[in-house]
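User: I'll paste a sequence; please echo it back and then give the predicted structure.

Assistant: Echoing your sequence first, then the prediction.
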Amino acid sequence: LIAAAILPLTLFGVVVILVRGSVGGPAADPTVGRVLLFAIAVVVTLAIITSYALAGDLLGPLKSVASAVDRVSAGDLSTPIQVAGEDELARLADSHNRLAADLERRNRELGRILAAIDEVSPRDSVAALVDRTAADATSAFALIDAVVVMGDPSNLEREDVVPGVSRPLRAVLRAGGEDLGVLVGRLPATRRWERADQDLLELFASEMAAAIRNAQLFATVEAQNQQLLELDAAKDDFLRGVSHNLQTPLTSIRAYAEQLELVRPDRRLGIIGEQSERLSRMVRQLLTVTRLESGALRPRTEVVSLATRVRKAWEALGADDVPFTLDDDAGGWLAVADADQLDQVLWALLDNAVKYGGGTPVRAAIGVDAGLDAAAGRVRVTIRDNGPGVAAEDVGRLFGRFQRGEGSEQPVHLRRWQWRCAEQPQRHRMDVLRHLRQHGLRDGPGNGQRHEPGVGHPGPEGRFHEVHRPAEQRQPLHLVRRSPAARRR
C-alpha cells in the first residue's frame, strides 16, 4: 500500500523537475523547484500515514481470524469471530463460525453416543437394545423420530430428499460382516446434514449392532447353560431315584441271605450277601461321583492319623488271605483332612492292590519327605503291590474316567479308583501324587505298582500350621504335631 501510494507521485515530481530544468535553462527560478520538492515530501508523508491506517484496518480482521483458528486448535469452539460488513473477510469469518459451531455440535453428539454405548450390557435383551438404539439416536442427533427395523436392509426402500420437508436418514446396523437391520429417522428441514454427520450416525449404528449381536450370543449361551443345569438336575434326580430303588431290594436281599445263612449255613448264601453288599457300595460310589462332578461334595476337615486310617481301610477290605504290612515313619505328624474322602482314596488304592496283586504282599508306608524345609514338607503314604504293573502305552489314559488297561493276562490297574483319585484333588485339593507319571513304569510280572497319595505340611510342635501355596500345586492340607501327652493317649 505504501509503495503504491508513494511511487507514482514521486516519479511524477522527478519528471516535472527534470522537464522544467531542461526547458527553462539557467535563468529559471529555483523557488519553483524547491516548492515542488516540498510538495512531493508532504504528499509522501501523507501517503505513508494513510497507508499505515489502511493496513491496520485490513490486518485487524485477519488477526482476529488467526486468533480464532488458534483457539479452535486449542479446543475452544465457543468464541465466534465478529467482522462487520459483507466483504471477503466477513464471509471468511462467517464460514469459520459455522465450522466451529458444527464441530461443537458434533462433539456434543459424540459425547452422547459414547455415554449411550457405555451403558449397554450384554445382559440386556435384544428388544430392549433395539428400542434403546432408536431412543439414543433421537436424543443424540436431535432427530424428529427414529426407529430400528431388524432384518435385511434391502427390504426397506430409500426415501428421496425433498427440499422444505424433513430429511430422511438411514444407517445400516452391521456387525461381523452381517447386516442385522437398519436405523431410519427424520431430521428437521432447517438442519444441515453433512457427510461428517452421516459418518457419525453410521459409527453409532455399528457400535449398537455389535452390542445387539453380543446380546444375542449371550442369550444363546444363557439358554444353553439353563438347559445344561436342567439336564444336570434331571441326572441327579435320576441317580438318586435309582440309588433309592436299588438300595431297598438290596437291603432286603442281604438281610434274608444273612438270616438263611444263620439257620442253614451255605456258601452260596454268603456269596449272595457279599455280592449284594458289593452292589450297594457301587451304588453309593455312583452317588459320590455324581456329587463330585456337581461340586456338591464339600470337604469337612478334621485332625486324623494317617496310620489309623490306613489300618481301618485295610480292615474294611477283609482281605485276610493277603499279607499286609504298615510302616509308620511319620514321626508323630497328624493330617488335617476330610476323613471320609481320604478313606475313599485309601480304600480304592488298597482294593486295587488286592485285586490285581495276585495275592502278593501289600505294603503301606507313611513318611515325611526328606530334605525339605518346614514350609514345603509333606507326609507321603506309599501303597505298594507286586502285581503285573502298567504298560507304557496305558500311561496316557491312566487317570481317565472308566478306563481299563490292555494286558495279555488280566486287566491292570486302570479301574474306578484312578478316576476317583484323580478327581478328588481337583474337587477338594488333595494332593494325590501320580507316581506312574512322575517316576516311570514297571511293566513286567512281579514288578507291581506303587501309588502315593501325599497330604500335608509339617508344622511346628503342638499347633496347626496351614499351607499357603499356588493353586496349581493343590496342597492346602496341613499337619499338626502330636504332643507327647497326645501320643500316650
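Confidence is low (pLDDT under 50) at residues 371-375, 407-451, 454-489. The chain has three domains: 2-89, 123-220, 300-488.
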